[in-house]
Prior knowledge:
Layout: H1 14-18, H2 21-66, E1 81-83, E2 88-89, H3 91-123, H4 126-139, H5 144-164, H6 172-196, H7 200-208, H8 213-224, H9 226-242, H10 245-250, E3 257-258, H11 270-277, H12 281-285, H13 290-319
Helix pairs in contact: 2-13, 3-6, 3-9, 4-6, 5-6, 6-9, 7-8, 9-13, 11-13
Amino acid sequence: MSTTAPALRPAVTIDDLRGNPKRIRKDKRMHRFLFAASTTSIIISALIIFVLFEESFVFLRDLAKEVGLSSLWDGGAVRPGWYPRDDRFDLVTLISGTVLVSLVAIIVAAPLGLGAAVFLSEYATPRTRRWLKPILEILAGVPSIVFGYFALRVLAPDLIQPWFDTPQRGSLLVTGAAIGVLVTPLMASVSEDALRAVPSSLREASSGLGARKSTTVIKVVLPAAVSGIVAALIISVSRAIGETMVAALASGLLGQGPRTFDPRDPGLTMTAAMAQLAQGSDNVVGSGLTFQSLFFVGAVLFLMTLVLNLIAGRIVRRVRNVY
């Protein structure tokens, strides 16, 4: 009885290991395109930062010659404030207004956003979550100018003025409350993602020990997701600091005003001062150091946001839990 030898497979050559030439050329083209896109974005960012700090240096140099750097805190003035067209550049006015608005915004957004996130992640049924989560994300895409008019037409006359006895509609408190409503969907969305990333085994272990649902959420789920919640809080703060249209509409001042530490008073944030001052470009250029002051305020705002992100990165790395 004869047996046939099994057919030998053809040997694998070097050309076979190199892959399809057409696919290789396509991958190389995609690699070059992505490299060019990333390099272009880096170059554009570097140019923006260069122009920002170059004009800021010009502003500080000319300010030191003409007025003096002491005008940046306007300590000797009877009523210190931000009056750039009069060569009074009290930076404390803008920083204090920005900080007050951000604090009010976080006081509004943190409990509302975290509460919505906990409900969506731990209490809502799948059906409820399917229609509620998209609505929450749609709210995050509403133009900020809409929230500015909402602040003037609803928040200020119906809530802020009756409760806090503010002298007029526009104030730092109104601005902060409106920005808080604006960043609430962002806070809720990021926090909800962090809560849902907590392993179900932790919830099951807590329930197996006899813990109630509320106890599991407070003592197990929230501590396990603290790094994501902190990240959501920092993102919300950065968004509140950089908000422009709401601050420009609802702050109560038009490009200049006195220093105040009372959130019930009209005030200025850094973004509002830049937006309102740059409305008339010809006038800004023709008024001494006013044009360069826009770049200086932008540079200070950039440094504040950068420092905030660096601090946030360290905090998140320190409190992060890996499962």
